[in-house]
Structures are given as structure tokens and as C-alpha cells.
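#lab-general

N.A. 3:47 PM
ok so I finally got the sequence cleaned up, no stray characters, all 269 residues accounted for. can someone with queue access submit it? mine expired

B.Y. 3:52 PM
send it over

N.A. 3:53 PM
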Amino acid sequence: MSASIASTPVALTIAGSDSSCGAGIQVDLRTFAASGVFGTTVLTALTAQNPYQVTTVEELSASFVKAQLEAVFDAMPIAALKTGMLWSAEIITTVAEWLAQATSIPCVVDPVMVATSGAKLITEDAIDRYKADLLPRCRLMTPNLDEAQVLLGGVPVDRHNQAETAKALGDQFGCAILIKGGHLAGDPIDLLWDGQKVHTWQHQRLQNVNTHGSGCMLSAAITAALAQGNSLKQAVETGLNAVHHALLNPVAPAPDLLLAGIESIGKGS
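B.Y. 4:20 PM
back already:
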């Protein structure tokens, strides 16, 4: 008699490719693997980039994005999914329409708009599609301070109004909000509004580590935890701790370049 094999949770990332493997689809897959889930992908765009700059973006067609979604969902039991760089209004609408048919699957939206290097990772008309089509269908959104400001129409976000901003975004889009505090002065405070209560986590700011892809890593780690059946609060805490552990254990793929040690996630607390 053959031994029974427990199925591995399956997570999906819908995002762009990073040719340096420090962000996007590549870091999502590495984070899924380190977190103990099986990763699947839907590519939205190809980029020529490294940890310092994005030089070129090539958009994939919305029809091809839909074809990838169909292929993955036909064969794989997706337990949770995340979106990263979606690039165009057409792709955002395509993904949102698909999610309307998969309402039982928790979706984490990382509203990727601008790379750490300053390069735009979204077209001008896509922001409205985020607001109207995608965000009302997600379980959790994970904006940084700049993205939260854009989504609120330009209202500056700081340490003093971080909680009010999270609640305002939650009221507007009907989802939980995790506002990342990496752009705050001093030690970062990450704040979750779950629709009923505010939760905060503070970590010591680490110096001399390139944080390229850390937002992708965080949303991927949260998605992995949701795929494993964790509550939202526990998934967020797991994700934040995983990223902090990765930043504490950087790797050096090139001289004078320290990147978060993603493969250490599974070994962290």
C-alpha cells in the first residue's frame, strides 16, 4: 500500500519579470518556495532591470494574460494569489474580471506603481482601473506611503496619519489595508487595518541593505501564509517577520551589493 501524500498548498503570482531576479515574478517564486508553498505564475510584462534601475518594459497582451490564468486555474488548486506589477489598464481589468469568478480565493494586491529606483511601473490610465475594478475585489492591499498617497488623490501620508489613511483606504475599497512604513523617518512601522482593528509592528531599520524587491517579497510571504490557512493578521505578521529576517541575512551576488537573503526565510522565526 502506497503512503498517502499530503498536497502542498499552491499560490499564484500575477506580476512582471525582473531580469536581475531581485523583484517581481522571480522573487515571488523564491519566496513561495522558501515559505513552503508551490508557486505558479501569470506574467504581465517583461522588464530589463537590475537592483538599481529599470531600463525597458515590454507589456504582454491582456489576451495572453487571460490565457495564462485559464491554463493555471484549469490544473492547479490555487489557495491564495497576489498581484504585483500589472502595468496597463487592460491587464488590470482582465485580472479583475477573472477574480470576480474566484471570490473564495484570498487575493493580496501589491499596487506596484513606482520602482525603488524611481522608474514608473504603471501606465497613466491604469490607476483608475485599480480603483474601480481590482481593489474592491481583493482581501488585502499592501501600499507603501507613496502608493497610498496616489490612491487617496495626493494626500500626504506620514507617521501621524498612517492609521487614518489605512482606514480611509479600507472604507473606500472595502478591503483590509497594510500600509508599509519603510518610507517613514526612523524605524519603520507597518500598520494593518483589518476592517475592525488597527495592528502595528515596528522593526529596527537596517542599514546598508538594498531593499530592491522587499515589497514583492512581503506580499508573496503573506500570500504563502494565507495559502497555508493562516488568518489575515497571522499571515501579515508572518510576512513581516520573514522579510525582516531576510534583510538581517543578506546575500552578496555582486561586489558592494547586499540583497535580502530570501532563501533564509524558511529558517527564520
